[in-house]
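ENTRY TYPE: paired fold submission
RECORD: A
CONTENT: sequence, then structure tokens
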Amino acid sequence: MAIVTGTRRTGILSRIGLYLVLGGFALLLLFPFLYLVGGSLKAREDVFSYPPQVLPREPRTADVGGEPRPLFTVDGRELALLGEEEIGRFAPPDDLDAIVEVPTGDVEPTGGYTDQQTAVVDGEEQDLFDVPVDGGVVPMVEREVFEVGRFAAPDDPETEVLAPVEQAVAVERIGARPGNYREVLELQTLDRSLTNTLLVTTLVVAGTVFTSVLGGYAFARIRFPGRTAAFLVYIGSNMVPFVIILVPLYQLMVAVGWVDSLAALVFPFVFNAYGTFLMRQFFVSIPKELEEAAFVDGASRWTILWRIFVPLSRPAIATLATFMFLYAWNSFVWPFIVINAGNTENHVLTLSLQVLGGRAADSPNLVFAGVAIAVVVPVVVFVLLQRYFVENVATSGIK
């Protein structure tokens, strides 16, 4: 009994350790996405804060004199910042150690602004200032100028405390700014680009699935002269890099008048050799007995394709649709070439994000928001279709 209990305890500890390791790796992989979402909800100043933080934060405020004032931690107390002052350190020319600190607004040039007097200090000529000291005025030279904040407790605003703002720690709380998304949509008309991208991606995915199903069934089930050779040539086109056909494809778009239009982003990509290959390989794995039984019952090839083969091919179709969705959604090179930069009405997300990177270079929170808009849709599509990736692609329905 003791041996069994010890073995069970060891198994539980091993499983817990495995889950912790896998959870750590999952968190590491998710961190860039979490930082992106957090950055898209931050204020501009929060993005540049150090040390960087994932969650968006905003400064806490307190009502002082009917106005909201930011709160800071000064000497362990939460005080409201009432304002900032410039403090100068002054000293007599003949006694530089006798430093006096006074607001720079309380001093005036000795002799006036038009005829300011000077004194030689350490071999250098420096301006003199009239500094109020003990009810009198003493000519002194300026040694240093720094800024301090005027702080006070929210419940006792009359009692002020002077402290360097750099040494005060802002009191913050978690606070998101969803308005960043509205601002970035208005800044770069991403709403129009998002609509165009959804339209182009939907048409590309639907067209590719349709043509791939037809082509895959033809190469898998219909015998005709030269079928194998035609299939090899068609699949061999995958070996041709896209950059090789960029110029001929652009010339074709010019010839048919599709340059600078969404049609140029759709029709060249609805015929896909990889999709045909994927569907053909899946259709080959479906037992011929299903097809023969359907022929005996009087079904036509069209009926067999759409009522037998396609329902059984949901995993392959979902995989193809996901791949094509990601390809069409993230396409940049071809839209960049065929769509005019000034034609924002036909821009897709990738083009708008490129322009946004320049227009909002000083506001990375808006860039984060634009990227998040472009990322969230593919993530949702992948989550919805991922279960098809683990299904048995050889499922035929025969018991």
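RECORD: B
CONTENT: sequence, then structure tokens
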Amino acid sequence: MEIRKPKGTNDILPEEVRKWHAIEKTAMELSDVYGYQEIRTPIFEHTELFVRGVGETTDIVGKEMYTFEDKGNRSITLRPEGTASVCRAFVENKLYGDNQVHKLYYMGPMFRYERPQKGRYKQFHQYGVELLGSNHPVTDAEIISFATELLKKMGLIDLELQINTVGCPVCKPVYRQVLIDFFSEYKEGLCPTCNERMEKNPLRILDCKNKECIEIAKEAPSMTEHVCEDCGPHYESVKGYLDAADVDYTENPRLVRGLDYYTNTAFEIIAKDFAAQGTVCGGGRYNGLVGSIGGKDVPGIGFAMGMERIILLLSEKNIFKDSKKILDYYIIALGELEEIPAFALLKKLRDHSYFAEIDYTGKNFKNKLKYADKSGAKSVIIIGENERKNKTVMIKNMETGQQEEIDLQLFINNLKEER
């Protein structure tokens, strides 16, 4: 019986990997421009990190985490998102000790048990950035500007940035009660999940995808009407910085994020050409997260974007050009005695950074030439008995068909000059 990959996972084959390399390169280059350094955290963490950090009332913790007990009877969870892990590393390695702003980015696999669909898998990959150590609204604007610019550089042009404020520990409880009072009058119209959210986290009702819940939520009071004296000015300052940077945005008073740790600014970026695919990037401020996992009360803000979703959208727009590397040389040895000098030449070519291959088929010369032509090599190097004895090589230009016999040592000496 053939063993197949688990449902909800995906093999990324060589042709697709080149697309991944392209967007990863873009992300890393822009990270350097904005001053963000890469951090790599474990793929699994203690379950408590996500329960305390992400929140017990979230769908991620309640329904989607891959959690198991290890051989030491410890509860372990495959990371469902990156921010909590970065903050744990920030605390554990005492990065806060120098009182500096820390700008970090990560790329890697995440795991959530959810229904697989186009562009969404149980194992998926995220690129994300985190800025820790400042509550200044200019950092909110920087993070948002970074996210929009990165998506544009990747090739997604027609974007809609939506922003909102979700309050802080001072005004959130007030707004929470306002929402409970409002939605209590519509219990019969809400879906079962939203009725459960009523007491636990009524803000999540605003994020429900059920049509009836969406219609009810349209009439719900907005957070901007209930912000405290700190959150209101902070939000206005963020908008001022975005205006100064010519970053277009739409205010969406119904926008909330699916994780409990968000405070103040929240945002999502939607690719308008692909409305069915929805959000391609989301993020916001999380000032209480570091403290909730045992660290100092350090403010933070960041975003994450799903790599599979972005690659799907870019592929549908035919953004990716053929990035397959062209083979410089294909070496053919005509007999057993020629195989050793052919392999030695292969090593020399690679030492000089040429993309070179040698024939592995062991077939006759005619078939070897077919493989050489199929490889797309610019030139074929042929070493037969005469070439071996005379210490020469036959070079065939595959575009023109012209052949030329060259002294082997002269050819090797000229490699540096050509490169």
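NOTES ON RECORD B: The chain has a mean pLDDT of 89. The two ends are 50 Å apart (CA to CA).
STATUS: closed
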